[in-house]
């Protein structure tokens, strides 16, 4: 509403009160490495590189799915990823060194098109709870 008032040039003699809602959005847990490995093993083979990359880097899924091989650099057994400005939240390009576990998985993938195969990503093979068993 305040944007509308500013855009229309309205003059206020008093700032209106906007009650703030109490938020409880503190992270209450995370997936341990053991839980992650169980989850990954329960996933379809073609999604494992993507889920590994997401877990170890914290990269947003949209940015990860847009990565091409031309953005990858392999040196001395490790990989680095160059994310362009349009692939990051704050629009600043970054060079991201990748953990060894991610580098090893990427070396095994075919070097054509997009790095990650996201076929059937939204059609889970199993429920999360059954993956965690």
* Name of the level-1 CATH class: Mainly Alpha
| CATH homology-level superfamily | Intergrase catalytic core
As residue ranges, the low-confidence spans are none
Enumerate how many helices there are, as a single number.
6
Return the average pLDDT rounded to an integer. 83
Helical content, roughly?
A: 25-40%
The CATH topology comes to hpI Integrase, Chain A
What would you say this structure looks like, in words?
This protein is an alpha+beta fold. The protein has one domain (31-131): Intergrase catalytic core (hpI Integrase, Chain A, Orthogonal Bundle). The chain is built from 6 helices and 3 strands. It has helices at residues 2-8, 33-42, 48-57, 61-65, 100-107, 128-131; strands at 72-75, 78-83, 94-97. The chain has a 3-stranded antiparallel sheet, covered by helices on one side. A hairpin with a 2-residue loop joins strand 1 (72-75) and strand 2. Helix 3 (48-57) runs antiparallel to helix 5 (100-107). The longest helix has 10 residues, at 33-42. The radius of gyration is 21 Å and the shape is elongated. The model has no long low-confidence stretch (mean pLDDT 83).
Concise summary:
This protein has six helices and three strands. The chain has 133 residues and is of the alpha+beta class. The termini are far apart.
Give the tags.
three-stranded antiparallel β-sheet; 33% helix; single chain; elongated; alpha+beta; 133 residues; hpI Integrase, Chain A; 6 helices
């Amino acid at each position: 509403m305040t944007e509308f008032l500013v855009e229309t040039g309205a003059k206020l003699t008093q700032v209106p009160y906007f009650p703030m809602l109490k938020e409880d959005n503190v992270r209450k847990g995370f997936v341990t490495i053991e839980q992650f490995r169980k989850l990954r093993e329960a996933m379809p083979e073609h999604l494992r590189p993507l889920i590994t990359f997401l877990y170890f880097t914290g990269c947003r899924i949209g940015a990860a799915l847009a990565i091409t091989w031309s953005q990858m650099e392999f040196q001395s057994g490790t990989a680095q990823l160059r994310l362009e400005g349009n692939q990051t939240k704050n629009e600043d390009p970054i060079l991201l060194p990748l953990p060894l576990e991610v580098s090893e998985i990427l070396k095994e993938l075919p070097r054509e098109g997009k790095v990650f195969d996201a076929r059937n990503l939204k059609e889970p093979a199993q429920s999360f709870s059954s993956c965690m068993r």
